[in-house]
Specification:
By secondary structure, the protein is an alpha/beta fold. The chain folds into 2 domains: about 1-95 and about 155-230 and about 320-378, FAD/NAD(P)-binding domain; about 100-155 and about 230-320, D-Amino Acid Oxidase, Chain A, domain 2 (2-Layer Sandwich), CATH 3.30.9. The protein has helices at about 10-20, 40, 55-60, 60-65, 70-90, 105-120, 130-135, 160-170, 215-220, 285-300, 345-360; strands spanning about 1-5, 25-30, 45, 100-105, 125-130, 145-150, 155, 175-180, 185-190, 195, 200-210, 230-240, 250, 255-260, 265-270, 275, 280-285, 310-320, 325, 335-340. Strands 1, 2, 8, 9, 10, 11, 19 and 20 form an 8-stranded mixed beta sheet that branches. Strands 5-6-4-13 form a 4-stranded mixed beta sheet, sandwiched between helices. Strands 14-15-12-18 form a 4-stranded antiparallel beta sheet, with helices on one face. Helix 5 (about 70-90) crosses helix 11. The longest helix is centred in the first third of the chain and has 18 residues, at about 70-90. It is globular.
Length: about 375
Amino acid sequence: MIDVVIVGGGLAGAASAYFLAKEGVEVLLLEREDLNTKASGSNAGSIHAQIPHAPFVENGEAWARGFAPTIPIMMEGIALWRAMEAELGVALDVSTPGGLLVARTDDEMRAVVRKAEIERAHGLPVEILGRDDLRRLAPYVSDAMIGGAFCPIEGKANPLLATPAFAQAAERLGARIQRFVAVAGIKRERVGFTLATTAGLVRARRIVNAAGAEATVVASMAGVALALEAHPIQVTVTEPVAPLVRHLLYSAGDRLSLKQAPVGSLLIGGGWPARCDARGRLSVSPRSLAANLAVAEKVVPGVAQARVVRTWPALVNGTADWRPILGEPPGVPGFYMAIFPWMGFTAGPIAARLVTDMILGRESGIDVSAFAPGAEAA
């Protein structure tokens, strides 16, 4: 019987394998395709800490106050990102120049200020900027922007490098990783679980569900219901251009994440929907692409000079409240969730470390009891 089987070979799964193997736990990771082929390797690499502005505007302050307790987790997650390059001995292109949310109208600015008040109450450093402050900090932003909010700890990392780095480090520590092995069923036993896989039966004392957008399917095999949905979104990258965007940039007027990679390419996203047909096949939405680029150019006019190289779709997991799902569901001991909807790249490593602490029965320094499966937002 294996001590811990991890289902899912994305960032949360690979990081879980690493942190558990580091503690001497016997680990087997199962991935039905190859590692890092889903959302963990297809996102834009943003590292967030602020409450996302679009759902704040759409859902209001009550929603934001329910989400805000995740801020300490994300702050700890960013500190972990900063430490992991040295720990893993691999460059991950981690950079935290700060996140900048810009506003064009007085109404947008008032919303920015209200959100910042909630963020500050949960310990997040956020500075409100007037027009002159914005010009000094980000002269590349359009003169039409009247102000914004700046969070100095946000930034980016490379999604093509992170998951493989954790996986390779886990294997060096003795973890086993089986690619192209799908889990078809999970049976709860008197002690532990039996997993039916395409490579045969596997017995495990404990399971970590780190299956991302397919976590609902994996959970249902163990008799656990999750209110988790897969959402098709898309990201665009341009040709390399001269240094332009210095921060992780957002717009208070519409969905946008904009940043510049070390090689000079601009990465443009923000959660715009991609297409998904009845068979689950993803494709790019030209309408979303045009709208996303229009928002980016409105905020940073210099973006218009960069030619688009590629746009690609991906499935991400999401919930209405955006809150993480961490730990054991009621009545199913030993079955652990490592899920952070929408923020999986930012929070993948910290979610993995928190679940590792739960498995080992030790205190993590962060109270995550409110995020246990089945827990309700206060």
